[in-house]
Inverse folding.
């Protein structure tokens, strides 16, 4: 609802901002909206117009044992990595924003470095670290690595939310006798919940969509759904090898 004290120019900019935001969101989700009807295509190629309506691809997905295993692996790794990234990222954000100390910038850089370091380097380094320990093909390793990749997103979103947080509320709760844990769960967490939820969504999407690091660590027995999709796509889209003509 518009503020009755707004000038005509402010009202125009109000509607322009919302229309622009809506068009931007539509532009961002348009590729997804275009792909969804193709999943019901009867043909074997992702092309328009559709050759027919069919559930054959969903039937193949839920009837193939390898795809079921991959989906189960993803649903084990992604939620666990999301929860771990959400907890670690939230605690790190609170610790970094509550005070000034020497080396704060370096710590912040190290925490968000998985976001900027190429995933190939992360995958190779992770394999070289976990392989000698015999942990290169386990759920624990995948969860830890995917959590490390998701922590930067949680830190950024929660830190942005904490910029507008009123620390006087925390001091008031302490003066009234509330413990730090009670203050966190009853005051701090509800106020920063939008940033925590946003970071968790980004962390889940990062974990569910990760391929390169997963290929280094998952092995052939525990490929998540995204890695299985990449392997299947590469197998079906690879051109046939040309045979050399006989001499």
């Amino acid at each position: 609802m518009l503020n009755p004290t707004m000038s005509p120019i402010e009202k125009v900019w109000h509607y322009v901002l919302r229309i622009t935001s809506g068009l931007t969101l539509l532009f961002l989700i348009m590729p997804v909206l275009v792909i969804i009807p193709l999943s019901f295509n009867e043909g074997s190629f992702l092309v328009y117009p559709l050759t027919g309506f069919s559930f054959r691809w969903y039937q193949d997905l839920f009837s193939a044992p390898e795809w079921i295993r991959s989906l189960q692996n993803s649903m084990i790794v992604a939620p666990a990595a999301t929860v771990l990234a959400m907890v670690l990222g939230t605690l790190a954000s609170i610790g970094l924003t509550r005070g000034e100390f020497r080396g704060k910038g370096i710590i912040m850089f190290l925490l968000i470095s998985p976001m900027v370091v190429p995933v190939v380097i992360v995958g190779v380094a992770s394999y070289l670290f976990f392989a000698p320990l015999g942990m290169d093909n386990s759920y624990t390793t995948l969860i830890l690595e995917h959590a490390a990749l998701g922590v930067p997103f949680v830190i950024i979103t929660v830190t942005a939310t904490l910029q507008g947080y009123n620390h006087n509320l925390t001091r008031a709760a302490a003066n009234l006798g509330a413990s730090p844990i009670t203050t966190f769960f009853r005051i701090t967490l509800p106020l920063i919940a939008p940033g925590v939820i946003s970071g968790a969504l980004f962390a889940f999407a990062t974990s569910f969509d990760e391929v390169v690091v997963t290929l280094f660590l998952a092995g052939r027995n525990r490929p998540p759904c995204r890695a299985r999709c990449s392997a299947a796509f590469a197998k079906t889209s690879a051109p046939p090898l040309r045979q050399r003509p006989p001499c």
Summary: The mean pLDDT is 78. The two ends are 81 Å apart (CA to CA). The chain has ten helices and no strands.
